[in-house]
């Protein structure tokens, strides 16, 4: 929203403009109004509000409109001004052009012309804001708004305003979302990998004639919102073929072999979140199809139908989860895995596949309840462990763990997400070691910015505050229960720089360690 100030000595003009225009729809906020230039100047200085657009009459007492524009532009050169006047005089127009006005509108005001002028001015302000940003900042803004859109975190009006500002447009009657998940472990370093994938996807889709918006999510997956003219089988086959070709191209140009999950084809851009959810479900099946480059939502739907007998009790799992019967659910899982392991000719890989199917089914309930983020980090870790399991007991343990997490998330008993609980436990047992939020983010495969935000949201404090408080509390206990010297205590709780320890001790306790010892 941009701030607008209206100045006119005719009350009916002021009241009329305030009432007749739909300011929010123009991305504008009516910040104030005044009856002459001097009054406006005083109000603006008192409010300390940033004024983006000034709509002013010229002929007013105390200070005329052109003088007001000159004074305000000295402080804010980027100010946009629209002049209203009952005089069609060349000198006024010439002076207005010299100081840089957007338009000179004659009274009585033509509302259509004023609306068009405001829209053009807003567009100019938008362009100037974007031009002031670096390419990386623009990409971050686009990533943020597109990710919030597909995850349902912003409404249509917010999307409209922000997408127009960033010029995010996809002109196509049908859309499908694809998620590209590279495996950075296939090469020595993953630095710059998301950028390479993003650039390659943009270039290839444009060359293939597919309307496309490309962005990254918080897990550094590359997401593509792809446009299509219709949802015919022929079109979907062609889209799948192009996505497969993109995967092969990425393998060659980036040195990694990605897995691409293609969501359902949906009618109109507003349904992109539905396609994204289906792409996420498809992504879960990556471990079951290690040799596939691209997997579509239709593929997994067909697979689920063929494999239906493997999860004969899936409805039972759903019922037990919704009934919050955690013990009954774990018992059912153990019985089913035990029974399947006793079937003749069952291989270890088939047994692992059944465990994966159980986990995917339970996570699907969370996706439908919009709660999947509560277990996302634990989920990916467990899925990898399932395929590394060497015994039936390990498989049972992994599936039971996810079952408990899902049960708690659905029932609202889970006050903290698994990754935050793991980090809190790590801090409490490893506080003396050298680590940071960034190193923990790498350990738990979470984006550091997201992890910091999640920690603050769930713990009501920053990670650094929590870590330092815990270390200082532990240091105080050692002061009370041991004869250790201060610098030894500092090292034992994770501060290798004694000055750093003194600084944080005084911050959280209020006095230096030496003075605190005297008070004990």
Structural features, described:
With 520 residues, the chain is α/β, with parallel strands linked by helices. The chain has four domains: 2-131, Response regulator (Rossmann fold, 3-Layer(aba) Sandwich); 135-296, Reverse transcriptase/Diguanylate cyclase domain (Alpha-Beta Plaits, 2-Layer Sandwich); 308-414; 420-519, Arc Repressor Mutant, subunit A. It is built from 23 helices and eleven strands. A hairpin with a 5-residue loop joins strand 7 (212-216) and strand 8. The two termini are 56 Å apart. 29% of the residues are buried. The model has no long low-confidence stretch (mean pLDDT 82). Residues 421-519 form the HTH araC/xylS-type domain.
Attribute tags:
alpha/beta, Rossmann fold, Alpha-Beta Plaits, 4 domains, 59% helix, flat, sequence-specific DNA binding, transcription, Sig_transdc_resp-reg_receiver, Response regulator
Low-confidence stretches: none
Radius of gyration based on Cα positions: 31 Å
> Would you count the extended β strands for me?
11
Q: Tell me, briefly, the overall form.
A: flat
* Proportion of residues in β-strands: 5-15%
Instruction: Give average pLDDT, whole number.
Output: 82
User: Which bin fits the share of residues in helices?
Assistant: 55-70%
- Structural class, by secondary structure, is alpha/beta
- Superfamily (CATH H level) name of the largest domain: Reverse transcriptase/Diguanylate cyclase domain
Q: Could you give a short account of the major beta sheet?
A: 6 strands, mixed
Looking at the structure, the CATH topology of the largest domain is Alpha-Beta Plaits
CATH-scheme architecture of the largest domain: 2-Layer Sandwich
Helix count?
Answer: 23
What gap, in angstroms, lies between the N and C termini? 56 Å
